[in-house]
Amino acid sequence: MDIKTRKQLEKELQKRIKKVMSKQVKNMTKSTMQNHVIEDVYNAYIPESYVRTGQLLKDIDTKMVDNNTLSIESVRRDGEKDVSEIVETGKGYSTPELDAKIGARPFTERTKDELASGKFKQTLKDGLQSEGLNIK
Fold it and tell me: ∠ CA 112-90-33 to the nearest 5 degrees?
């Protein structure tokens, strides 16, 4: 593309950012949350009274909200129960004794912290470089 104006440059940059966000960054954020489900949830507590379905690991929704915003959310539900919220906060298990025994396993918060620590920025930078941009 032959870019001659600032507006053309901005349009091209937005196009490439959206492309990288919807592929590389999206895949990285999902795998980061999946890793935290394994490390912070599954490895932290072994159930004694039920068999895990593995759905918490699978029920992760990532979508582009607009050209610059990627949303990631654990959407695991069991009927009316928001399983993700129960696991995150440690409140709302089937009995109060389990709330105290299992406790909070904040996988969403830890995902957010890891992404904010530079992983998100680095993945975006690497993706834009793979698009042919010289990012510093």
Answer: 25
Tokens of residue 44, six digits: 């932290």
Could you read off the pLDDT of 67-91 as tens digits, one per residue? 889 999 999 999 999 999 999 999 9
On whether residue 2 sits in a domain, the answer given is no
Question: Mean pLDDT for the chain?
Answer: 93
Contact indicator for 88, 102 with CB cutoff of 8 Å = no
pTM for this entry: 0.89
13 assigned to some structural domain: no
- Domain-embedded: residue 117: yes
Q: Is 45 within the bounds of a domain? A: yes
How many domains are contained in the chain?
A: 1
Integer Cα distance of 95 and 97 in angstroms: 5
How deeply is 13 buried, as exposed, middle or buried, from its count of CB atoms within 10 A (0-12, 13-18, 19+)? middle
The backbone region for 29, taken as left when phi is positive above 0, alpha when psi lies in -120 to 50, beta otherwise, is alpha
